[in-house]
Amino acid sequence: MCGIVAYIGHRQAYPVIIKGLKRLEYRGYDSAGVALLNHGLKLYKKKGKVAALEEITVGKDLDGHIGIGHTRWATHGEPSDRNAHPHQSSNGKLAMIHNGIIENYAALKSELIKKGYVFHSDTDTEVLLNFIEDIQKNNGGTLEEALRIALKRVVGAYVVVLIDKDNPDTLIAARKGSPLVIGIGKNEHFLASDASPIIEYTKEVVYVNDYQIAIIKSDELILKNLGNERQTPFIQKLDLELAAIEKGGYDHFMLKEIFEQPDTIRDCLRGRLDVQQCTITMAGIQNNIEQIKNANRILIVACGTSWHAGLIAEYIIEELCRIPVEVEYASEFRYRNPIIHKGDMIIAISQSGETADTLVAIEKAKEQGAVILGIVNVVGSSISRISHAGAYTHAGPEIGVASTKAFTAQLTVLAMVALKIAKERETISHDRYLHLLEELNDLPEKVSHILARAEHIKNVALKYKDVINALYLGRGYNFPVALEGALKLKEISYIHAEGYPAAEMKHGPIALVDESLPVIFVATKDAYHEKIVSNIQEIKARKGKVIAVITEGDETITGMADDILPVPEADEVIAPVISVIPLQLFSYYIGIAKGYDVDKPRNLAKSVTVE
Length: 611
Ligand code: G6P
Prior knowledge:
Layout: E1 3-8, H1 13-23, E2 31-37, E3 41-47, H2 50-57, E4 66-72, E5 87-88, E6 94-102, H3 105-114, H4 124-139, H5 143-153, E7 156-164, E8 171-176, E9 181-185, E10 188-192, E11 204-207, E12 212-217, E13 220-225, E14 230-231, E15 235-237, H6 253-259, H7 261-269, E16 273-274, E17 279-280, H8 283-286, H9 289-293, E18 297-302, H10 304-321, E19 325-329, H11 330-333, E20 344-350, H12 356-367, E21 371-376, H13 382-386, E22 389-392, H14 405-425, H15 430-451, H16 454-463, E23 469-474, H17 478-493, E24 496-501, E25 518-522, H18 529-540, E26 545-551, H19 555-558, E27 563-567, H20 575-593
Parallel strand pairs: 18-19, 18-20, 20-21, 21-22, 23-24, 23-25, 25-26, 26-27
Antiparallel strand pairs: 1-4, 1-10, 2-3, 2-4, 5-6, 6-7, 7-8, 8-12, 9-10, 9-11, 11-15, 12-13, 13-14, 16-17
Helix pairs in contact: 3-4, 4-5, 7-14, 7-15, 10-14, 10-17, 14-15, 14-20, 15-20, 16-20, 17-20
The structure holds 6-O-phosphono-alpha-D-glucopyranose.
Residues 303-306, 350-352, 355, 358, 401-403, 604, 606-608 line the site of 6-O-phosphono-alpha-D-glucopyranose.
């Protein structure tokens, strides 16, 4: 949430920052701004996307080799020019960008108001900045010292980056709870919320840890803790290519990412699944297999789409491994003093690896002795670093705000993890194990097969683009797919949609059914097929419109539904990876037909680093 970029070095800072902000726009896009230092401090900011900021800077003085930039997802104060970052301190000397929330900002603000400070925005950021200025004024020390003192009083999460008119050769940054990566070039440094603005300049990066302060010059990077002790930067090599974060000929990142799924699933299986040898190799799991296989209970924590992947994992793990599983919203789990026993295992699922609620939830569980297994997409992210064990999903950068390829990669990894545990616990027969390995192996081809029929899905979607509500129903493994389908439609087409277990609809949602309500059934052939056929009949009897995701050749449902979205046959354990694909495309085409920016839907952000 909120994207930050900063540069110091021999290049002009402005173009580096603007390009970087565009790459980070998925994190927030309601306003943007930049501050540059060069014989004084220049600040430009504008409500709207980065393109709007570029427009107002045409013809302006953009010279400067040190600068900071920000793309905002509003927390304190509406999206507006004056609430956009960077903010300037009261004496005009400091400028700061911030990602996160200062929870005790109201108390700090009233202290400062009593001292005569006047505020020009509604943000918590301006409060923190003036608090830092005030400390420096009273203590007479350096900005670094003032920042250190200020951060000890701050409650909340932050990445902050400051520039100082009086020290035009230094950037100062600090982190707690929000991500910060520093790229190390030749006599230059790049700072960003993730590596995407950095990779075209350097592959050497340092991930800043919580409670660290970075003092950065063109040719020097110093890391310190809040106790003013120097810490050695751990330099890592990025394994990321520029092409992976560009649209590559597609109209939208979302479409590109949907169409990448055969490849991302293949990448996820590569080097792990070996059908001939009948093995799954996952070093991160294998190294901790004793603890994992002997877990008394598994708790899955996640948010959003990743939570839906967790729900599907609950079905898979309970069936294959016979270990009880509970799936929790991370935001609820972290605050309700959960009971965690020794021997419990927590699986944290996260695309970004930075979601604040998931991160704090596992930190708390770790303190109580749980083993943490991270299923994460972004390599080197906070969740991956604090987990004891884990497996990356290898889906590559996901830029469209609505998650697609990360979800199917999560399901693929979770199925492999479950199979591996089941094998170790001997809760699965050899034949079933081999069959599921083959099913996993066939996934990329089956997904390609569905994508080749995108035009049919588009035609169905266009028929329903003007509906106001939609109901998604599924049973068993396909129930969470119904939830995910409804979420996708809400996110990018702003149509109200609800997902329900198909049988549960009799306890409420059926009251909504009339000829104007489309009901999307996820009804591939599985153990519940006959039951869901009855549910379809119940909707038809009330004149609802039925759109059904079905297994190819399912004559029964074809004869009943208004529209069908056929997918290849698959074992029910694997089926969600297949049945979600038409629902992703269905939402995409409706969003586009309604003229919305599907990559950056209103009010949403890709990486939710505030709670
Ligand atoms: C945001 C994103 C969703 C994502 C959720 C959890 O809401 O827009 O696409 O599913 O956060 O994010 P995570 O990175 O933890 O999977």
